[in-house]
Records
---
Amino acid sequence: MIDLKKDAKYALVIPTSMGTRLTPVNGQPFHCSDTFKMQATSAESNVGAVSSYLGLPVKVLTAFVKGSPVSRFIKDNLASRHMDYEGPEFDAGGPWGLRHQINLADSGAGSRGPRVANDRAGEVGRKLAAEHFDLDRIFGEEGAQFIHLSGLIAALSPETSQFCLEVARKAKEHGTCIGFDLNHRASLWEGREEELAKVFHEIASLSDVLVGNEEDFQLCLGIEGPPPGGEGIAGKIDGFKEMIGRVKKEFPNTTVFATTLREVVSVNLHQWGAIVSAGDEWHVMEPREIGVLDRIGGGDGFVGGLLYGILREWPMEKAAQFGWASGALAATLLTDYGQPADEEQVWSIWEGNARVKR
């Protein structure tokens, strides 16, 4: 299956552009709220949280704004998540210069769906480049078992596209396994489709674990999949398996392929499932009902739980189940990331046991 480095300081290294999320309190819509909760967040660090809270060493590679109180807020948050971090600090360049992205997101309620907007003006993470990091030290001297790459960072700017390519090549050179979550975003791809298709194909060809939904595989890699949309998701599993089969033919050196399945019954009730393929084996988590407090981060929780299981060298079926349950856990939390108290808490979700634990 997947051959992990044995002499690595870090289980997981994660390049990311850290930012903040502003969320109205009490489930209110953003546009008619005056009180907000702020948290430090990024899709990629969400993935690493499952491993870091369960005791595996995780390192974040990111960029900061020199002297910014928001940067300090982010650093303190990463430390509270038991994550190491490193990265360049850029001068803000005045009031119209650099800052951290802001995710403007409400949670929705009942029949009112959540709405998310991203304010990326002046985003410092767009400046990430390989020259800012000693990659031979990180992947050679220190060592990492896995690196998690996301299509959000790979498409954020021409600089970060090249950064992700160079990081993937260097990681492979040093025997680090690569996980790649395609995470297509139309706003980031507009006008760069041909350029990004080449970048994504190369990273995917180097990857050991490849994750995406039906739209991701179509729009990032040009591989046909089921029509987008979650209605009647349980009846479309064969279509998803056929899609993954086509992806496997296109990327024969990749070991694990995964996709999540989600059907929204209401904001607070989803049908949640997943499919993982490894070798000739299929592991299908049939969609079943989960309660949802805040849906953001559920997919990242799935990837984080799957990678945790792989890092623990569990059988793939067990790793896939843990991924499903980690995604369901993240959906019960107001943070964007899963914060498991221990493995047992995650397994109790898989087993459907929500009884009080005293």
---
Amino acid sequence: MPGPSFTRRSALWGGIAAAGALAAGCADTPVGAAAPAPTGAPPPTSPSPAPAPGGTAPGGPDRIMVVGHRGASGYRPEHTLAAYELAIRMGADAVDVDLVPTRDGALVARHEPEIGGTTDVASKPQFAARRTTKQIDGTTATGWFTTDFTLAELRTLRAKERIPETRPHNTLYDDRFPVVTFDEVLDLLDRLAAELRRPVGVLPEVKHSTYFASLGLPVEPALVDTLRRRGKDGPDSGVIIQSFETANLRALKAQVGCPLLQLVDSAGTRPADLVAANDPRTSDALLTPQGLRDVATYAAWLGPSKEWIVPLGPDDAAGPPTRLVADAHAAGLRVMPYTFRNENEFLPLQRRRGGAGAPADTYGDAFGEYQQFVAVGVDAVFSDDPDTALLAVST
């Protein structure tokens, strides 16, 4: 595994560059330009396209990677083709795609299997009787679930903004975009790579691996089949597979050649596969020096929540950074924390602006937060606002 002395972007960029070169040689099939950002949202910036390894990125050859979290979800409803396209046109190096299965085994891009909060399913009388309650990884959820719908049925739904109180501008785009499959996302990214003539990466996340397997709808076989069918399962594919669980990543290590990323939830939580195996370890155990060395036996990347690197106190005030980035680098892992967002509620207390009465969509000092994480040596970031992230890490 390459150590941290390599250019920070090289683990992904070797594959993305190869994929971009391949796409650029194909017939050019342009995708329509993304719609302008809604009134009140900042206009996208236009950073220079990211180079292949060894080139000079804006801000230097070690400019960290920016991954559009569920696309440019600060500006469009998440996990829509519009959000993914906007992220890439803003200059993001790759996009993050959460994958959940349908009843007939298709992989669709949704943050969770419950879709009452991210689609218009509640307004469809023909689906009213499918509202139900399920236990998923120890959490009770009530609503409508992808595993109770065929792909054909999901295609009748339209996406909507998940957090409308915080992102009222995004509600302008409610009901305009369909639920899409992983293949459709990959088709879009291939077309954008060809049009923009630059590499474009993708980070599929396997959601709730143990839970879906218990339903007879495991995500991993369909994911591996899709990547193999499309020639994206190798080390030079521009793909990084991510999961909060550990056993599935260990198994995937023997099935695909693309890098793997171990996501780590907040302190005290337990990965679902460890719970199912009666393993008492919590997320904390993964991040000890010994735990990091173990993660490095199957993963190339570590994806911790931001608070593992800059802890927050009871009042959300940020404390001094921890040693996690240095410890992960010492174990041979690159670090990609989540999730960077511009709005006050997602920022430490010291970086919020406008006082207690500020509107929910008020932007805080996001640049200051990015710069603190860049200073401690992170290698990439997941961001809802790729334009902000790119400017922050390039200056």
---
Amino acid sequence: MQKMPNWADVVLVPVLSLVLAAIISAIVILAIGHNPIDALGIMVKGALGNSANVSYTLYYATNFIFTGLAVAVAYHARMFNIGGEGQAYIGGLGAALACLYIPWPHWTLALIGGGVAAAVFGAAWAAIPAYLQAKRGSHIVITTIMFNYMAYPLLNFLLNGPIKAGGMEPATPSFAEAMHLPNLSAILGAVGISFSDRGPANFALIIALLACVFVWALIWKTKLGYETRAFGESETAAKYAGIKPTKIIMIAMLISGGLAGMMAINNVMGEAERLVLNAVEGAGFIGIAVALMGRNHPVGILIAAILFGILYQGGAELSAELRIPREMVTVIQALVILFTGALDNMVRMPIEKLFVAFGRKGAN
């Protein structure tokens, strides 16, 4: 028996979680001597006040869409892939190598080549934890954490040695100008919409939206998606139906790692136009909260990613405007993640009890 309707699970629980996070955040802001209403206004204006700020918000949201989808695909197969950070790092390496060593004559070809390389490298980084889970019973959470901490030093070594551009900064040379992806200003300008060119949002946003459609079609409209969801619901029943666990684990993790790796289209190819050491900026971990808040559905992930984009860009403006330490802004972001992720059941369980109680009264 369903304890509460789908709309309550999809809308009511996340909204109440956000309200609780907002209340605690307001108390934090009051404690450091600022007006929470003013702070909220600054965050909203900083994230959405003009097209340049919107561009930054959409840039962050694009990263979170890719990593959120990566978490969701694995989650439907009953796996908690928290290795999106490392997979995004290695995906960035793949995109950079494709753009540095192949002379693509046009950005469209670079986008295809770099995007495929990013996906392949990200999937390859996820393949070993997937194999260990499928064949050796190693827990996917542990192995993906380990691979996160292996990806960063590997990239650090490469960016300070074999593929370093020179100088002090650990980074590759810039990609050729022909490979630069058009920013959102150029895309919207082509259809007569004025938009600032001072922000980093770029063509990768369109790829992220297409990725949402791809994941929706894959999970809910294909045989593989059905098998993945069936396996996620009950491994025993899936085996009885002839579904092979090894196949589902490997394919789901390869797709998950590939999606995380494709974040490089946005931050490596679209924004920095080279590979830098801190390119991922924690987006792999934020993707976990985005997927949880979005209930592992592409539409929910898109909305949650935009919300976290607003938090990131608005938080930066809040820190600059009120001179609030950046760490306090991080606390506010962490509270949202905490209430929408780890403390989800704290909100869900009372709501379920209310619906059950009202259902019994209605039956009587």
---
Amino acid sequence: MKIVTAIDSFKGSLSSMEAGTAAKEGILLADPEAEVVVKPLADGGEGTTDALIEGMNGQRIDLTVTGPMGNPQSCYYGYLADSNTAIIEMASAAGITLVSREERNPMLATTYGVGEMILHAIGKGCRNFIIGIGGSLTNDCGIGMLKALGFEFLDENGMDAGEGGQALAKVASIRIENKNPLLEGCHFQIACDVTNPLCGENGATYIYGPQKGVTDEMKEGLDKDMAHFAAVVSSSLKCDYINYPGAGAAGGLGFAFLSFLDAQLSPGIDLILDAVGLEEELKDADIVITGEGRLDHQTAMGKAPVGVAKLAHKYHAKVIAIAGSVTKEARACNAAGIDAFFPVVRGITTLEEAMDPDTAKENIRQTIEQVIRLI
């Protein structure tokens, strides 16, 4: 019997690989002859870099870049030497959690540090990039990132237009001659789970701007500035992504990747499942074990375990999910492809006790052992 585990992290308790390894131990207690494959799982958001570093023998690369408000910011990315791939979370360089609510200023916040991360990875030999763009503080259409990569944005006097949201209205022309020449050989895959266009009432500024410091008074003007910038890009580069689904992600960073770097935008779970090669392992799998810290109605709406289930059913494998906690609404997961799910907490306990890593591992081991014995 072949069993594949692909379990998302139990946030605050176990990493994806720790949870998967505990499940493997439980499987082998019940069936020592089972063939067990453990794969990392993430959805392209927070924790993706750590999951793929651990699960794909990657290396953590630490560096200091320009933070969203211009201050030095420590961050890191994952380096997969075998495939010359960099795993980057833009939020580590320009994320909303890096700046207090009082300090957030969408007119100044920049993605420059994201570009510095990409440049650093190019210098290490990376030519393939998987970049998660959730959790941004910025609303700059990616101007900062692109400037770090050598693109130039000039005002009507031929001077640098600046950075942040305030630069958008000033851009009159774009120079691409000085972009890093190695970008031509780079392939960018962007984990993007939103479908918002760049502008309008469903665009970057109106939908996501308020949490980044965009006031009601700013919205109309900043949205028009984005439209102006998009028009200059369209005229200069002969492409038009203003209404492309996902262009409005991360304050227009999706638009920048599409327009300047010929990137592909994909749902995060699809991108990660492809990156870890899960489908190949599922072709002859009998059972798939997935899960996350909490199973609820949101899980059924396309989170990582359901992405695993859909792929598993393509090859007629049974899908079992585990979780630290399960809500009543989690029954929707059955309709979404999870054949059965089980909470792993085994008795009355405090949250702190349940989330203790050693306790969580033992709970997973014992739960999975009993499930496999039944099968």
